[in-house]
Design a protein that fits this description.
The protein is of the alpha/beta class and about 250 residues long. It has one domain (about 1-180, about 200-210): 2-enoyl-CoA Hydratase, Chain A, domain 1 (Alpha-Beta Complex), CATH 3.90.226.10. It is built from 11 helices and 9 strands. The strands form 2 sheets. The protein has a 6-stranded mixed β-sheet with strand order 1-2-3-4-6-9, sandwiched between helices. Strand 2 (about 10-20), helix 1 (about 25-40) and strand 3 form a beta-alpha-beta unit. The longest helix has 19 residues, at about 75-90. It is globular. The two termini are about 30 Å apart. About 45% of the residues are buried.
Length: about 250
């Protein structure tokens, strides 16, 4: 179980998540991911970052089983802080970050890609934020960067998913390709960005962040406050326990 990195000769820095079986990252994984992306942006040899995953899907969010088997609140606090730092690292990375999404992209996965600069996906990929079904809140900030406001609210309240092909229509996913071609297509896109003058690209990334109408770091932190409230009243534990025991939402 790792976060691995590889720097290509053209300046493409590939970050790969590999946490079987579903890439639900443990606390340490979120912190390692944040560190890898942050260090990539600080390296002048890096022109672009490509975030990808091995296995059945891109990311299934936090490791709920780790959270429920850990006494006290250390895992909860760690997961929340780790997610915040990983999302922040991607958004504030000094170079563009491209997400190559395979299979499912859920919960914290949407937090990751919502802060990326470009998304390319397999044609069978899908996205969703099932936080309501887990007794938590979060990543609405990032889901709102993928779909219009009313659709975001519907997806959020219902925990429904949306296909990558549908997100192409909304302009948030650049394109979808056959799953077998995803890595090569993502590398080709990254190479196109990497070929630009890195001084200009870094300035462009800073400029685009500077004119962003939403402070994503502050917005997500606000959401997390409600997650802590739900934990204090016991609702979150009830939902997480039900998911660990049955794999289904408590309301089923």
């Amino acid at each position: 179980m790792t976060i691995s990195t590889q720097l290509h000769d053209n300046g493409t820095f590939v970050v790969t998540m590999d946490y079987p079986p579903v890439n639900a990252l443990p606390v340490a994984g979120w912190f390692r991911l944040a560190e890898a992306v942050r260090e990539a942006g600080e390296d002048p040899a890096v022109h672009v970052v490509l975030l990808r995953a091995e296995g059945r899907g891109f990311n299934a969010g936090v490791d709920i089983k780790e959270m429920q088997r850990t006494a006290g609140h250390d895992a909860l606090v760690g997961a929340n802080r780790g997610c915040y730092l990983a999302f922040k690292a991607i958004y504030e990375c000094a170079v563009p970050v491209i997400a190559a999404v395979n299979g499912f992209c859920l919960g914290g996965g949407v937090g990751l890609v919502g802060n990326c600069d470009t998304i390319i996906a397999a044609d069978d990929a899908y996205f969703g934020v099932p936080e309501v079904d887990r007794g938590a809140l979060g990543a609405a900030t990032h889901l709102a960067r993928l779909v219009p406001q009313h659709l975001m609210r519907t997806l959020y309240f219902t925990s429904r998913t949306i296909a990558a092909n549908d997100l192409v229509q909304h302009g948030s996913v650049l394109e979808t390709v056959p799953a077998a071609d995803l890595h090569d297509a993502a590398l080709a896109l990254a190479a196109e960005v990497a070929a630009k003058d890195p001084r200009v690209i870094r300035a462009a990334k800073a400029a685009l962040n500077g004119i962003d109408p939403i402070d994503v770091n502050r917005s997500y932190r606000y959401e997390q406050g409600y997650t802590f409230e739900l934990n204090l009243i016991g609702a979150a534990d009830e939902h997480r326990d039900a998911f660990v025991a049955t794999g289904r939402p408590l309301t089923d």
